[in-house]
Queue: 2 jobs
Job 1
Amino acid sequence: MTGNGTRETGRVHWIRLLGAFWRLNLAEELQYRANFIASVLGTLFNLATALLTLALFFHHTTTLGGWDYWEIVVLLGVFNALTGVVEAVLRPGIGQLAGEVRSGELDLVLVKPVDAQGFVSFRRLDIWRLTDVVLGLGLAGYALFRMGHTPSLAQLTAFGLSLAAAAIVVYAIWVVLMSLAFWFVSVENIAVLFDAVYEGARYPVSAYPGALRFLFVYLIPIAWTTTIPASALTGRLRPEIGLAAVLVAGLVFALARALWGAALRRYSGASG
Amino acid sequence: MIRRYAALIRNAWLVDLQYRASIVLWLLWGVTEPAIALGIWWAIAGDGSVAGYARADFARYFFAVMLINQLTIAWDSWYLDRWIREGDLNYRLARPLHPAHEAVAENIAFKARTAGVILVVWLLLAVAWPAVRLPFAPGRWAFTAVAVLLAAAMRFFISFTTGLLAFWTTRATAIMELHAGVSLFLAGRIAPLALLPPAVAGVAGALWFRSMLAFPVDLLTGAVHGTDAVLRGLGGQIVWLGFWILAYRIAWTRGIRRYGAVGG
């Protein structure tokens, strides 16, 4: 891949590199088409349990944190779309990283003429899980239809922007977790921590008691990832909060990047 | 046998000790689901109550879920699935000891550590937060201990037996996930069974799900009233434990006959 042409410029353009990696991944995944069915069935089952849980809560109440049933279904759709991004793009590579940190094989990544953070984050792609994104957005659309609410162009734009900001926040949380692998080298299952943390994003942040709300807004900023885009779709998002979401995304990303840098400085390879 | 078990448990304990960070991860993973559920029910209950459950009742219920779920959970289907698929079962079969004993010892070592942490955190929180204090009732705690043992044994056999399905299918862990999804409701992980629609709660009681978790939790928090109900609950646990032991016997003898693997 590092032909003479690219070596002269020093750094391979990351878009071209990712394109090449994902093409290889796609070719590999297409051999296992039964996984597609299994993946869709798994997602549908997860959605069904989430909707039944919600139905159980609403069996005993009419609103949750000021949101009614279909509004929270919109939020669940956003949640499913974002977990789809995590499952498709981020999770497939993390097991590999933990192993490389332990064995010293990460040396081989660090000497490549690409940004290491981007490379280890995006090098594998589980294409089937992108159906989660489609199913999630479909569910959000259906819930909007049931609410009888057609989002305006401004609301859709706000949704697009806040969803992008949400993806950045999720990615930043993920980078923090990857960085932890440098301190706790035995954690094959560091992604489990993400599942634990992200569980809280299933419901609007206003539904939680004060202490949990503080935790989800300021310390582990998952509130920004589902509550804000869902609010944009249902028309309850105030412009200043939307602006804050974008700023939070930038801030969290910068912090995560700094932590990744510190983690890399800590790493000393044992050679691969 | 006791000496063998002591060695196995010691071994599992020392292996776990190398992976302390991983243990903390699984512990956090285990407590977030009940913590989130508690947060939501706390909001729904407000200053009133839901089907007789006020805020403090929910707090006690979900703290008991955290502790007892940790004490009774079993990961064995994932291990067995890997052992069978990758041939690691071979050298375990060559040992003069049934592989199930190693799995039981691992369960004991893992649970002693993680449940111990939860218990200590609970006790510390109870000092500051009256809602999660349990009334002093040694007799009930003794019954709870028995119910927890029965539930742990049953969940071990469910997990082990499901893992054995890897002899026949590559989707054994998916079946276990399916079971986990159903038990979210029927075992009482998301809400006390009293809050489910009566028909659903009836299914949970008629099958093994209530015995898995909800019954020991209700026993600990004092939601099971009268000796009669306690004995009936324990009886149900024993019957379903017997059922799953039988299922395990059948799956093991048939599966081993089918099994042929290379390497390990």
Note: Chain B has eleven helices and no strands.
Job 2
Amino acid sequence: MRRASFLPSVDPFLLWLMGVVTAASLLPARGAAASAFDVLADIAIALLFFLHGAKLSREAIVQGVGNWRLHLMVLASTYLWFPLVGLATGAVAGGWVDPLLVSGLMFLTLLPSTVQSSIAFTAMARGNVAAAVCSASLSNLIGIVLTPLLVGVVLHPATGAGGFDWHAVRGIVEQLLVPFVAGHLLRPLIGKWVDRHKSILLPVDRGSILLVVYTAFSAAVVNGIWQKLDLADLASLLGLSAVILAAIMVVNFALAKLARLPREDAVVLLFCGSKKSLVSGVPMAGALFAPAQVGMVVLPLMIFHQLQLFVCAWLAARYGRAAPDAEAPVAAAVQEVLPAPAAPAVAPLVVPVAAPVVAPAAAATVGAPGTIPRAPEEIAAAASVRGLTIPPECAEGVSANLALLAEHAARLRR
Amino acid sequence: MSAVLAVSERVRAGDISATEVARHTLAALAAEPFNAVTRLLEDRALDEAAMVDQIVAADGDPGPLAGVPYGVKDLFDVAGLPTTAGSALYAGAAGAENDAEAVRRLRAAGAVLVATLNMDEFAYGFATINATHGTTRNPHDPTRLAGGSSGGSAAIVAAGLLPFSLGSDTNGSIRVPANLTGIFGLKPTHGDLPMGGTFPFAESFDDIGPFTADIADMRVLWEVLAGRSLAEVRGEPRVARLSGWFRENADPDVLAAIDAIAPGAPLVELPEVARARSAAFLMTAWEGGALHREALAREPMAFDPQVRDRLLAGALLPDEIGVEAQAFRAAYKAQVLDLIAGYDVLLAPAAPCVAPPIADPHIEIDGAPAPARAQLGIHTQPISFIGLPALAVPLYRLGRLPLGLQLIGRPHGEAALFAFAARLEEQGIVGSWEPGGAYRGAAA
């Protein structure tokens, strides 16, 4: 049976995460094996942040930084309104939800925004993609320092000695900051290689997260997580996640109105300002919390992550459909000039180029006519004019394939 | 005697009924261990076989393929069934109203369709790693790939479970799996065999063709599918060996075999092969992306993840690039046709190496590992780019992993290719053999 097209699918990576949690529940690493996994997880976290550093494009931030009012609003959403909502949720839930889960909920509100899905949803909703790239990247860059600091400030008094330990600062520097800075400083040397081999690096990236989650949940299982948790707890987490997400979206929606942001920028605020990064959050939790607590702490993040994908995909599709009519003829025109599947065999086929009919807003990011889109904002814009959305889980693969096609195009044109 | 002709002769002579053949074949296919079959067409096969038996009983002529069972790649229309092209996306689609034209011609010749066969989703790959149906295994070593995208069609013939099958070749999707599984596979002159009722991929290059275990079967199938007799071949074939690109990234055994087959034949270097292959790569991505753009917009997550990313990237290619590649192809084809005008058969590798392991589907290109799914066609892609006919033939190497080459002809020059291949087969240089090993018992 066909799935309804308006429903986003379950993130496949979430299925992997659930599989790993199940594996850790049935076969948790114990004793010497647990110690070995701890070491491996530490290495994986350092590797992840090295790659984050190498992948983050400073140029993208510099190019889009002119819209400073919007970026400040996104940063305020990520690092001010979110933590405040987190504190309020913690206060409300403190009495009836496990304290470590409350810590987890508050922890997720302190994390940086996602890069890939923020951009993808902004593109889907026909927002300002270039600004989304800058905002999301900036949020990630700042988060590497700000999130651990916020964890120290917000969670230490909230959870007492059992939660956050200021000695973890050394762990942050060693495991997160040093590899991140090293990766970023080496970007001039390895950046192109990293960009070209994103498809190879993706399994490293995701494998590392799975390793950290397995290690964390092994420790949590040994510590009795499933004796402490039941379905009611999970349902509570889902409900509280929904409340947090709804509160942030309402705040951002209202602020965008108050600040009279243009529609394209309001979309950026809504989507970049409401995301929390699983990819950053899991390793950060691994570095910041005691091994036995990490499993419980990341559980709310995993639930929130899927919820935000569902809600934002639905909202972005609605925004996309409601976008000003001026873009509809553009999409139709592009459809017309693109090759009909049955026809392109005739040579030489004179196909009008797409560039003249690209919407001005998109033209700014599509690049010169005949140029293969490479940067995330170019890809999102090119997809938008073809009526496509690049799902977040495809972003790396599409980018790697476009890189390969660009190599072939360069050879054709030499 | 060849498998196709052996079955046909016995059925026509009344030694065995088409129904018996169909029942036996269906039972064997139900237990096949190579993940080559996607759908068994039991009712249809028994109906078709019964019709052949009725004609034989009435002393009529059921056709040259009387009672011969066969399978088709999952992209041929089969009346009443959805044409899925190996994708879950179309598993629930409406059934095809009619058979594909090739299937109709085979049926008219007495052949009995028994199964549809596995492929890379939408034919976009050289590996037959399919998210819905799984990976097809190579009968000569089930831990290895069968190649693709027509991997199911190749594996089932290589295993001896069907005497022939149909596949499609856009960039090498018949020739590569034929080489990796040690059988014959034909990519005809572009457009010479009927494409009606097949799910397209990149129509500038798409062709259909048969897989067989010997050259006599290939000849009869070509004649049935083309609807005409092969031209008569006179005199000695003028043979050349392709050099340059086609002697790089090739297995030394294949190069040695080519040199042994035609030791004094001139070495011909096609110009700008790297550009040609890149243009083929780009046109394929561009046409494939355009073809699936609507479905990618509607249900991107229903695609095979590996194929989805490739198609999405293709859908984002600027039209200028597709048009440039088309223009280059027109000029390039004219240039190559001038260069090869004096030859009947050009010898070149088809697959660059033996079948890669399923556990590590990579091959070595220019000293670096490359994904088999995208790169196994480096020697086939430049040939289909200009629509030349090419016959993949297996080197006879009993007990070893299959390797082979492609015999490339001038447009509509299939007869010369078949004649040359028949001579090599007689000499024991090329030929297929049934895979050995313990699994053979399970497959038989």
Note: The radius of gyration of chain A is 22 Å.
